[in-house]
Design brief:
161 residues; alpha+beta; HIT family, subunit A; 4 helices
Length: 161
């Protein structure tokens, strides 16, 4: 796959930033990696230290707003984040979601889930099933700098294909 043009240079994904959009106004969380077309952030979601978002940089609301090459690039990034989380953290499950109802800016949730997390096996947006496992959350969070280094390596390699 060839490198993608920078957002804003043409095509459906060249939409202008929306000043009212929180994903246009801010990174949307802790920036892990940024490329020309998209970025990966770690979301600040209490109880879920390995909650990531793949955010399209240009302001588009729907996946179908992207060209075929852009859709492929976006999903390759989502898959890369999933693969790194699986390899580095060995979660019980990975959850993927692209709801976008509250923030209509294209982004994918990539969430490493564990059988000890407060909501498992229910979705992270459902009521808690049990108390938070604070010690396990902290131990997982301590591993994230290494995970972020692997994510940056993988995403940089992907962006150069």
């Amino acid at each position: 796959m060839s490198a993608l043009p920078a957002p804003g240079t043409g095509g459906p994904a060249a939409a202008a930033a929306s000043p009212a959009c929180p994903l246009c106004a801010t990174e949307g969380g802790e920036l892990v990696w940024r490329g020309a077309a998209l970025r990966v952030i770690r979301a600040d979601e209490a109880g879920f230290p390995a909650f990531y978002r793949v955010v399209w940089n240009a302001h588009v609301a729907e996946f179908s707003d992207l060209s075929a090459a852009e859709r492929q690039h976006c999903m390759e990034a989502v898959a890369a984040v999933e693969q790194v989380l699986r390899a580095q953290l060995a979660p019980t499950k990975i959850n993927l979601a692209a709801l976008g109802n509250m923030v209509p800016h294209l982004h994918w949730h990539v969430i490493a889930r564990f059988d000890w997390d407060s909501h498992f096996p229910a979705p992270v947006w459902a009521p808690a099933q049990r108390a938070r496992a604070v010690e396990q959350e902290a131990a997982l969070a301590a591993r994230l700098p290494h995970v972020h280094a692997r994510l940056r390596e993988r995403l940089q390699a992907l962006s150069q294909q």
